[in-house]
Amino acid sequence: MYLVGAGPGDPGLMTRRSLELIATADAVLYDRLIPPQALDGARPDAELRYVGKEPGKPAVEQEQINDLLVDLGRAGRRVVRLKGGDPFVFGRGGEEAEALAAAGVAFEVVPGVTAGVAAPAYAGIPVTHRDAASAVAFVTGHEDPARDGSALDWEALARFPGTLVFYMGIKNLPLIAERLTGAGRDSGEAAAVVARGTLAAQRTVAGTLADIAERVAEAEVRPPAITVVGRVAELRETLAWLERRPLHGEVVAVTRARAQASELSGRLRELGAEVLETPAIRIEPLPVDLPDPSDYSLICFTSPNGVRLFFAAVSGDARALARARVAAIGPGTAAALRGHGIEADVVPERFVAEGLLEALAEEPLEDRRVLVARAAEARDVLPDGLRERGAVVDVVALYRTVAEPLGEAQAEALKEATYVTFTSSSTVRYFLEGGGSPPGTARLASIGPVTSSTLREHGLEPDVEAERHDIDGLVAALSADATARRAGAR
Predict the structure, then answer these.
(1) pLDDT tens, 72-102?
(2) Same domain, residue pair 154 and 226
(3) Do 166 and 196 belong to one domain?
(4) pLDDT tens-digit profile of 151-166?
(5) Residue pair 250/442 in contact by the 8 Å Cβ criterion
(6) How far apart are CA 423 and CA 471, in angstroms?
(7) Same domain, 122 and 208
């Protein structure tokens, strides 16, 4: 049995130990506030059971959770009890550990990054600072500070010579501020509330102890949130970093095939975006009788998928291309070739078929054999253009792109998107055919003119088009557009 802290929300803050245990668990019992993608590494046959508690909704009682853990532990199963933050910091992990110990079930505790440290840090607020706070107190804000018999000593908290960090205190924030100031805490002391800390949707509201509750109410801040009271909150204006990222606060839908989405998704997250992976397409390899590559003077690759499947067909042997010149459309395709030990001889400045034909303008092609490795449904611009130059062209279709219908949860999540990205014409077609519908408030981002043309064919006008027709170009265009919109809103 493992009581595991999953961290405050950012999946990158999960510990290596937590990921190892999730990957080997027979069962995972998880809470509401675990990070997105936390369960992605679980075994396909693992039992995943939600035992979280949500405000205003029926919840599994803590005693039931304790009993379930004991039963699973006694059954000899490898169980991960996955909790947001740290299991022993306002996570009731201590109670669960006591129940296991009383039942004689062996357990291990795996600490996690707690929100009381992480959320302020992501907002640019250090909970301790040599010149501002040499101590920090973590306090639950969940109990009603107005009720008789409060477990909190408000006079002691008011006198505490350092930072106060309140968990789960949004509902009671007016009473918390009133109790602290009533007990002698300076009403002009800096305070800040960090909502959805460490996530792309993180928001911070700053003020003083006197007005922080009013500011939070006006901003309509909702849980989960952390409240920080102390001089350290004054450092936010100087040290804030997360919310200054160019895509912070944006919700970007990625319609690429799931196997390809990780690169774009990762880049977007680094720039502060919340990413919705809503794949519209799936890459389906085709059975292929690949001709002998040594028979060709020029081999053209149009995508990283084509590279991957070509080398699968030749058992990864790069020597198969030893006698041919190699052309690649786009740096992504060139990078995929490089991964197999092949440096492309020709990479056009424009990453479309027309650009490759331009790059091959001085290439002697009369009566030379050319192989084009591509998708089944690709445009014929490249092979037709090569034939017009006198080349003997063979086209090998290594894969086809098929629709990946949106699930109900994906379609619902898509309503929150501020951008929807399209990286090929097929993502446009299949996204729309598969039930996708960009929300009216979302901006449509295209990787290049061919994809933009397909959007227009379907009555949609792209708001953003990458100047450089690859992932780097698309990310740069999104960043520039978001920055310009933010500047215009000021």
Answers:
(1) 999 999 999 999 999 999 999 999 999 999 9
(2) yes
(3) yes
(4) 789 999 999 999 999 9
(5) no
(6) 8
(7) yes
Q: Are 391 and 368 in contact (CB under 8 A)?
A: yes
My answer on whether 126 and 224 are in the same domain is yes
Of all helices (H) and strands (E), which one includes residue 429? helix 425-433
Are residues 203 and 157 part of one domain? yes
Q: What is the CATH number of the domain that holds 46?
A: 3.40.1010.10
Mark whether 292 and 435 lie in a shared domain.
no
> Cα(391)–Cα(406) distance, rounded to whole angstroms?
42
Which stretch of DSSP H or E encloses residue 254?
A: strand 251-254
The CATH code of the domain that includes 305 is 3.40.50.10090
Q: Compute the distance between CA of residue 100 and CA of residue 95 in angstroms, rounded to an integer.
A: 9
Q: How many domains does the chain have?
A: 4
DSSP-derived 3-state class of residue 279: coil
Active site members: 31, 53
- Per the structure, the complete domain to which residue 409 belongs is given by 251-280+404-489
d(CA 396, CA 295): 14
Q: What is the pLDDT of residue 149?
A: 62
| pLDDT above 80 for 150 | no
3-state helix, strand, coil in the chain (%, to 5): 35, 20, 45
- Tell me the C-alpha to C-alpha distance, in Å, between residue 216 and each of 175, 186, 212: 13, 19, 6
pLDDT digits (tens, 9 = 90+) for 431-456: 988 777 888 889 999 999 989 999 99
Q: Are residues 274 and 408 in the same domain?
A: yes
Are the C-beta atoms of 482 and 464 separated by less than 8 Å? no
Task: From 401, 417, 452, give the residue that closes a domain.
Answer: 401
Question: What pairing do the DSSP bridges indicate for beta strands 369-375 and 298-301?
Answer: parallel
Calpha distance 288→34 (Å, rounded) = 44
Q: Which of 78, 98, 113 is the last residue of a domain?
A: 113
Does the pLDDT value for residue 490 go beyond 60? Answer: no
234 lies in the same domain as 168: yes
Overall pTM > 0.90: no
Q: How far apart are CA 221 and CA 138, in angstroms?
A: 21
Give one DSSP letter per residue of 137-196, joined into a string: EEEE--S-TTSTT-SS-HHHHHH-SSEEEEES-STTHHHHHHHHHHTT--TTSEEEEEES
Cβ atoms 468, 475 nearer than 8 A = no
Count of C-beta atoms within a 10 Å radius of residue 237: 9
Token representation of residue 117:
């440290």
Element holding 328 (H helix, E strand): strand 325-328
